[in-house]
Structures are given as structure tokens and as C-alpha cells.
Amino acid sequence: MSWKASARHGVREAPAGLALLQDFVNTRATMSYAPDLLATPDDAQRWLTDALATWSRVAGLPAPVLLLSSTDLRSLRRLRSTFEGVILAAGGRHANPDGALPPADVPVSLVPDADGWVRMVPAGRGTRWLASALWSEALLAQQAGLWPRLKLCNNVECRAAFFDTSRNNSGVWHDVSTCGNTANLRAFRERRRLMGGTGDQDGRPQHGLR
């Protein structure tokens, strides 16, 4: 099993520290091939250790050693759902009918470096530190103009988080050859059912679909 959650979906990794947030969202179970990496303390700990080591190298900041409990997993799964809602809202889609999103109640430190540039550094203890790191990366991605390109696959059974590299930021599927084709085939069959037919007038399926 890969402990790098995004690698399970074969998606392009988001740049810089935003990859940590992408990987966190991609810990969720997806269809039949990707189990939930936050389901058990052992799986979650392996994922977190690997993810924080990668983030530390990219961000150039030390990461604490976080030891997870079952209670921590419940709070992390809630936080994951919150981020899914935030990403959907950024794309004009809302997970909640009223569009309400909970506030991010996390601490951060603002630390000036030797050249006078202020850095936002995660703060807190335990999973509060992780939440601080994730919200910090979301804000930094928004400031850098990267946030609108982090999306959830339009296939509700998939919902893999992917970084859209299309020129006009129009991607909706994490993989067009899988989720995209599946959705197109489903839509074609539904149109055919509503029309009461099985294909075009000579009995052949349209568009080469079977």
C-alpha cells in the first residue's frame, strides 16, 4: 500500500506546501481501490509520518513528531470533510445546502527572517499543529493564486483531489480516461433510455460506445 495518498490516484502533485493539503484530502476512501488511510491509528500514523517528512523538506521548516490516537482520527476525518467543503466552495460547488463553512480556529506564528520577509509558521500541539499547517498552506495557496486549481474529481464516487494544470482551469475529472469516460458513458445511456432507443436509426450505438 502506498502511504502517499495522492499517488494512489495517479494525479499530478500540487506545488509547494499545497501538496500536503492535497494528500490529506486524498486519504479518504475512493471506490474499491483506495482504502481510508485515516481509518486506523497504524495506517494514519504511517501516512502522517511520510507526509510531514515530505512537507518539511519542501517548506524548509521542521515538523514535529505527532503520535495519533483514535480520538485524533475522528477530529482529522472531520477536518478532512471541512477541507472538502472549502475546495468545493472555491469551485462554485457547496457541500452544504446553505453554503456555511466552519471557521478555522487554529494558531499560527508570524516569523520575520533575516531579510525582513515574514513567514507564516504552523503552531500548536498535536493535531492542532497539523490543522495549523493545513490552513496555512490553504491561505498561502490563495495568496499565490494556486488555490482555484485544487479541485475534487466530479465523480462523486471518486472525489480525488487533483491539481488542474489545464490552460483555462477547466478540468473536472482527476482522470479523464477513467472517471470522465465513465460519466460520459453513464450520461449516454441515460439519454438513450429517455429517448427509448438503443442507438441510432440503423441500430448501431452512437459515438462508438458499447
Q: Please summarize the sheet with the most strands.
A: 2 strands, antiparallel
Overall helicity: 40-55%
Instruction: Give the N-to-C terminal Cα separation.
Output: 33 Å
Tell me, briefly, the overall form.
globular
Notes on the protein architecture:
By secondary structure, this protein is mainly alpha-helical. The chain is 40% helix and 8% strand. It has helices at 18-25, 41-59, 70-90, 127-143, 176-195, and strands spanning 108-112, 118-122, 150-152, 161-163. It has a two-stranded antiparallel ribbon with strand order 1-2. Strand 3 and strand 4 (161-163) form a beta hairpin. The longest helix has 21 residues, at 70-90. Mean pLDDT is 85; it is low at 199-210.
